[in-house]
Amino acid sequence: MSLFHYIGSSKELPLGERGRRKSSADKSSGKLTKAIQFRSAHLPEGTIPLEQIVDLSHIQEDEIEVYDSMEDAAGIYIQDLGTWNGEIRRHFKNPFVYQIAANWGGFSVHPNLKENFPEQYKAHVKCIRELFDLMKEYGSNHEEFELYTCWDGEEKQRKNNKLHKIIDLETFQLGDAFELKDKQYILIKT
């Protein structure tokens, strides 16, 4: 099962991806991407590189997206719900509801992630910041956004009222721990 995240807005939001920054070394041509390379990636001692295990000669240079770091590859993807996921709309007051996904990161940060996996931590922080930057960019004074998270197939289940949260974008600071939790409804005020 997958944990899905949703955003509700009083106005339409742009669909697609935001936040990725390709490397100046990127030579991808818009073809179907077959591989992604992180220039900052360092293999631990004793690790065998993938190209020594698998023949990658069929992948051309213009089919590889290159990023300087995982953080540069991180971003968010906004997708229209369409008619296939109408049950999720019942959790929102706003008329426009979208599914949001984190690319190369996530919507949670914890001190142990920062300590043990610093590259992934930076990617997670970037995804969260991109989400909040989206709301700052498209929100006007006293506008409200809504966030809701639930597992696939559990869209009809009730929200967990104990997890409800209100965030004021004017004063919000991303701390050491933040997470979009299952069945959590968050009201974001601009």
Q: Can you describe what's shown?
A:
With 190 residues, this protein is an alpha+beta fold. The protein has three helices and eleven strands; from the N terminus they run E-E-E-E-H-E-E-E-H-H-E-E-E-E. It has helices at residues 70-73, 111-116, 118-138, and strands at residues 3-9, 16-18, 35-38, 64-67, 75-80, 96-103, 108-109, 144-151, 165-168, 178-179, 185-189. A seven-stranded mixed β-sheet has the order 2-5-6-1-8-11-9. Strands 3-4 form a two-stranded parallel ribbon.
Question: What's the SSE blueprint?
Answer:
Layout: E1 3-9, E2 16-18, E3 35-38, E4 64-67, H1 70-73, E5 75-80, E6 96-103, E7 108-109, H2 111-116, H3 118-138, E8 144-151, E9 165-168, E10 178-179, E11 185-189
Parallel strand pairs: 3-4, 9-11
Antiparallel strand pairs: 1-6, 1-8, 2-5, 5-6, 7-10, 8-11
Please give a handful of descriptors for the protein shown.
two-stranded parallel ribbon, alpha+beta, 190 residues, seven-stranded mixed sheet, globular, 3 helices, 11 strands, 2 domains, single chain
Assign the structural class, choosing from mainly alpha, mainly beta, alpha/beta, alpha+beta, or little secondary structure: alpha+beta
Distance between the termini: 33 Å
Please state the overall shape, judged from the principal axes of the Cα atoms: globular
Overall average residue pLDDT: 89
Low-confidence stretches: none
Cα-atom Rg, whole angstroms? 19 Å
Taken in chain order, the helices and strands follow as EEEEHEEEHHEEEE
Arrangement of strands in the largest sheet? 2-5-6-1-8-11-9
Hey, roughly how much beta strand do the residues contain?
25-35%
Q: Helix share of residues?
A: 10-25%
Tell how many strands the DSSP assignment holds: 11
Number of domains: 2
Largest sheet: 7 strands, mixed
**Treating each run of at least 4 consecutive H or I residues as one helix, how many helices?**
3
